[in-house]
Design brief:
Number of helices: 0
Structural class: mainly beta
Radius of gyration: 15 Å
Number of domains: 1
Distance between the termini: 16 Å
Largest sheet: 7 strands, antiparallel
CATH architecture: Sandwich
Order of helices and strands: EEEEEEE
Strand content: over 45%
Helix content: under 10%
């Protein structure tokens, strides 16, 4: 399956990744506080590109998802408190969230609670 919109990522012409080879689905379930846990470690020489993400919290939690070694504002995918049985569904990001550098790792930190995060995307 080819990419008719190659070179036009995020445009109306974008066919997205080739689902046979490129699509990735990463999930992590936490219970209690976790710090800088790896959510997505792309293959050597590649970077992650997130197109959709979902967070569901069973109990109240603050969830921070960030690119690589720090959670500075310019590397955050998400940083928000969620109520018990709350969450967020972000689909079809108009501007995909790309790792700032090749071989960066997507990580998650929580202050406690419990829940699951799922990210969808591809590696480039």
């Amino acid at each position: 399956m080819g990419r008719k919109g190659a070179g036009h990522k995020g445009s109306a012409k974008d066919d997205g990744p080739s689902w046979e080879d490129d699509a990735s689905h990463k999930s992590y379930t936490w219970s209690g506080a976790v710090t800088a846990i790896t959510l997505w470690d792309p293959a050597d020489g590649r970077r992650f590109v997130i197109t959709d993400y979902f967070i569901v919290c069973g109990t109240a939690s603050t969830v921070t998802v960030f690119d690589d070694v720090n959670n500075a504002d310019n590397s955050l995918l998400n940083q928000a408190p969620f109520a018990a049985n709350g969450g967020i569904s972000v689909t079809n990001l108009r501007t995909p969230f790309r790792g700032a550098a090749i071989d960066n790792i997507l990580k998650i930190t929580t202050n406690g609670g419990s829940g699951t995060i799922t990210v969808l995307g591809y590696e480039e």
